[in-house]
Design a protein that fits this description.
There is one protein chain. This protein is mainly alpha-helical and about 300 residues long. The protein has two domains: about 210 residues, Fumarate Reductase Cytochrome B subunit (Up-down Bundle), CATH 1.20.950; about 35 residues, no CATH class. The chain has eleven helices and four strands, in the order αβαααααααααβαββ. Strands 1-2 form a two-stranded antiparallel ribbon. It has a two-stranded antiparallel sheet with strand order 3-4. The longest helix is centred in the first third of the chain and has 37 residues. The chain is globular, with a radius of gyration of 25 Å.
Amino acid sequence: MRAGWAEFFRDVYLWLIGVTIGFMLLHNGADWMRQIRSMGAKVSVRRLSPGETAQHWVLMVSFSVLVITGFSLRFSDSAWVKLLFGWKGGFEARGIIHRAAAVIMVIGAVWHCFYLMGGRGRRWFKDMMVGREDVWKFGQNIAYFFGLRRESPRFGRFSYMEKLEYWALAWGTVIMTGTGVMLWFDNFFVGKLGISKGFLQVMLVIHYYEAWLAFLAIVVWHIYGTVFKPGVYPMNPAWLTGKMPKEMYQHEHQDGPRLKARAVRVTLEDEEEPEIGPIEPGMSNNGRELKPVISLAGREEGSGTIAP
């Protein structure tokens, strides 16, 4: 009898936990999504060009698929793996999906290399280089964290956090591609080139732990900087459309390029905002009649601070 009641209350609490926590997740998720949508009504600047945004999407999707399908092989007995690939032929499909995502990621990396050869790409590469100033600002930031400095350092187009992540991504892509190719075509490397199976085992270890390093770096470093950092919460929307609120940009990149800003139309990061003089009521800064601009929130706002 006692065992029956214990089982009864166990089931009651399992349902209670599921319903309660599920409601909390839906409630807070709806609030989070509402805050994100409200960013669309704010004056924005274009942080990433359409091409750069597309590159990020290719990287983000391929990386996510690689993480899921890669760890599925290592943890094949886990419940979440059986849920995703437990169907007949699922594990064979997992391997195909993993390799397809790897090819897409390599294509994205090659695309980025060609991008770096263009004018905007060369500026990107130059701004991503780590210099003595980044080391100095790292020290200033640590001092700010521990209350030894009143203000945080002023960052330019890319902070040292973004630069470290970028070069870590480049290094990780090379490592994962090299080891992944050797594991994919293991018969060729062992049978034709005479590489020992022990060497391939080393490649497997490097591939596996490099994957863990990349995954944890994204979770701990990248997600914090783009979602949970107080200055950008509930998130920096630049990864979705390439745009971010002007106020957020000015807070995070105080010494970065001055960007033109509009509620609807935005411009590229390397285009400077013109100097604006006094504006007479009803007139724009170039002397023409002021026309209302419909913002993303559906309100009419004067555009007198920005030249059409």
